[in-house]
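Task card 7
Instruction: Convert sequence to structure tokens.
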Amino acid sequence: MNADEAKQKLIDAGRILEAQGQGDLTRGHVSVRVPGDPDHFFMKPHSYGFDEITLENIVVCNLDGEKVGGAGRRHSEVFIHSEIFRARPDITSVIHSHPTHAVALSATEQPLKMISQPSCHFADGVPYYTDTMNLIRTQEMGSGVARALGTCKAVLMRNHGVAVTGRSIEEAVVLALLLESACQIQLLTQAAGGAGEGFSDEDIERLHDTVTRPEQFTVNFEFLRRKARRSLAVN
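Output:
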């Protein structure tokens, strides 16, 4: 993937996230490392919705959270991205959003339970960031989010939102949608009286290993990209 392809995937990722209900006015953001340059990343600009990312307004930032290129404004919460990228060289993409069910579950401080196929994508755990529900506007705060995330795929930011990561932008986008689905299913299950008998750790681990293969994320991202583009063409 070259830089132009990465930018186009960022644009398509934004359209997918908006279409799938991850938008919260202009407050969410998504980023992807610059191919061949892991110390810099492309990011959605401030003051625009997920579906308003363009080649012209994409921002380029470094691992100190400084804007070094692009015409758009830098997000004040850039440090979620820069500090996760600094701490996790294995990560290529970061998403921060405020999906309704994930925020609701985070407010309960309950762990994500392995009661659905979406939840089993996170069998390695979904930790909590609990330092504040405020905006993450300093390197120190961003570092706190990265520490809470640890080696996991996602972190619930209590009463605030989520930070979801991926080895690719495809993985980050699909995981963000699956995490919200898992949280919704858990809340619905609790409202219905609670889950029944669960499955063994071995069964859950086998499912996790199957559904988190890279090709699974690519296939589903491409489906969502086609769907978003069809919708755009109709409108």
